[in-house]
């Protein structure tokens, strides 16, 4: 996994990178260190104040380091103000699922009320030799600029609105109005048993799972994250913290084509409450906007009328039929499809 952290000066980029290193053991690269190394070595004939030109020089280096890390299935945190907000344009579908982007933004209230504290903690990780150019006016202007870029490119900022650094859970992939979607881990075994061992929930599979099958299910999801960067995610209600089911993007093999397909499995008590449609729309948005997919499908058994309605409410249309083979059985499935321009 690659973690990109950007933001205005003094927002805590290096502190967040350090905490993620300590929590997840991911190494991190400071673009400020790379900048000074290139300048002091004579490899870059710029001054530390030429931000736009520095971004043009530093980002291509960082970009290719990121690609190398992904290709080698390595983890890396890259932090600095030289990460462009249009970074996704530099990565194809094979890279995008493995990248998380966190833009840090301080609220104006936080800057105005705690400016002296912000300055005192400026060198909590790295010593700043001269911080005289950092003023409240500069902080307000820079954070407004970063916030505007978040709005322009559709990113949810990581808000700094108090003395504590916001918590970042790298398992969380995306969210919707009511739900958070995070990667499934072995710690979710009991939670998954509650839904996968219920024959009514597992209607499409025609049987409830054994403990061993649940364990294999978890391993398959985790393998999907390693190989593709996505799979079924655990859908968690933001307000209650309860898991409502599993909703994600799957690698659907239709004929000889591999296509990202929306999948959803909801606990009985959360069915018919709009969670499936909300989750499906969130996965379509994630697939198109974040991963750069051109087409997303859903494969549904013809008799599963509720799932067909969910697909239609998501904006999909029926485009074909194919047969899935599962447990020695042939199971006809309808193909519902949506193109990127239709989203």
Features:
343 residues; alpha/beta; Rossmann fold; Aminopeptidase; 2 domains; five-stranded parallel beta sheet; five-stranded antiparallel beta sheet
Summarize the structure in words:
- The chain has 343 residues and is α/β, with parallel strands linked by helices.
- It folds into 2 domains: 2-169, P-loop containing nucleotide triphosphate hydrolases (Rossmann fold, 3-Layer(aba) Sandwich); 173-342, Aminopeptidase.
- 36% of the residues lie in helices and 25% in strands.
- Strand 9 and strand 10 form a beta hairpin.
- Helix 4 (108-120) crosses helix 5, helix 6 packs across helix 7 (211-227) and helix 8 packs across helix 9 (305-314).
- It is elongated and about 70 Å long.
- The relative contact order is 0.10.
> What is the topology, as strand order, of the major beta sheet?
2-3-1-4-5
CATH class of the largest domain: Alpha Beta
Number of strands: 13
Calculate the mean pLDDT score and round it: 91
Major sheet: 5 strands, parallel
Strand content bin? 25-35%
Compressed to H and E, one letter per element, the order equals: EHEHHEEHHEEEHHEEEHEHEE
Number of helices: 9
General shape: elongated
Low-confidence stretches: none
Our Rg estimate from Cα atoms comes to 23 Å
Helix content: 25-40%
CATH homologous superfamily of the largest domain - what is it?
A: Gcn5-related N-acetyltransferase (GNAT)
Q: Which architecture name of the largest domain does CATH use?
A: 3-Layer(aba) Sandwich
